[in-house]
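FAQ: What does a ligand-bound record look like?

Like this one, built around NDP:
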Amino acid sequence: MGQSGQVTTSTRIVLASRPHGEPTDDNFRTEHVELPEPADGEALLQTLYLSLDPYMRGRMSDAKSYAAPVEIGAVMVGATVSRVLRTASDAVSEGDIVLGYGGWQSHSVEKVAHLRRIDPGAGVPVSTALGVLGMPGFTAYAGLRNIGRPQPGETVAVAAATGPVGSAVGQIARLKGARTVGIAGGPDKVAYAKELGFDVALDHRSETFADDLKEAVPGGIDVYFENVGGAVWDAVLPRLNPFARVPVCGLVAGYNATSLPEGPNRAPALMGAILSKSLLVRGFIQTEFAAEQTPDFLRDMTGWIADGSVQYREDIVDGLDQAIEAFRGLLKGRNFGKLVVRVSE
Ligand code: NDP
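The answer part, i.e. the structure of the complex:
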């Protein structure tokens, strides 16, 4: 029992085993654990919102990557918006709303130095700190600013166009004066992409997708912001203009893949295109730019939301017990907007 005399029990979802292909229920386990009281410099937090993001599939695997895997038996990682319940630091007060990295659990004890205070009176839901005003929005901003660099009149294409990264890519590119092509799965998402202001919106599930794309970009593509890979990339590659830039941000179409695609080795054709068209194909992880460019991002994005030039959509799922199913859906396009779990009111 803690100093306050209160016992805090956290409900949490841990990684039980590593998935082969699509994650199954058996890969996760729900536990109830008693949390220690916060030590010096720590705070005890109640999770309000948990972000679900495609990168979490990578953390479930122990294949070599840019970040360490979640250990078996450890809490699934994730960004969270939480309320401070008790604190052993002057930097936050009880009742503050903070952005942290609490993971898939109802309560957490975190180092206060790793938290960022969120203003609940800022005119946007606090959950946007996980989406348009958080890591995904920043990913779009940084990938365009540092790699894509769209110029007025150029054509910018992006898939997963109604998700938090893709929707921000399209709207920022439009603000830079580019013509934008949004690629999404199914008619509802295509209609919403048009609402967001994409000049053209295409359904990658359509059998005629490759031809539709060819017709939609008579002048070719200058920036392709790569979020998905797979068949969308196959259709985009022949449309890239000389000196096109390809920020390689994510390849979600393949995150559950258990083998390489069948067919001939296409690496020589890809390298040939990179060479003959002088393509810039540059992978990035947003953390590369975060320390230096987050203040600019927060200033710009806050302004764009306030003046209506950037819109966002959240897909809020109720209850931590829904996280596993919602996460599976994210990897195959069942989410519609930034996927967030409301863990408590
Ligand atoms: P989204 O919320 O957009 O969800 C993923 C979307 O991917 C799905 O909704 C679906 O949209 C689309 N998708 C899934 N499978 C396929 C497929 N086979 N073909 C085409 N599209 C598919 O995700 P985010 O906006 O959070 O992330 C977008 C990408 O950015 C991901 O690849 C993610 O890993 C990456 N990312 C990279 C970061 C970095 O630092 N490099 C940081 C953050 C994100 P639809 O139904 O429209 O097809």
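Follow-up question: can I read anything off the structure? Yes, for example: The CA atoms of residues 27 and 225 lie 32 Å apart.
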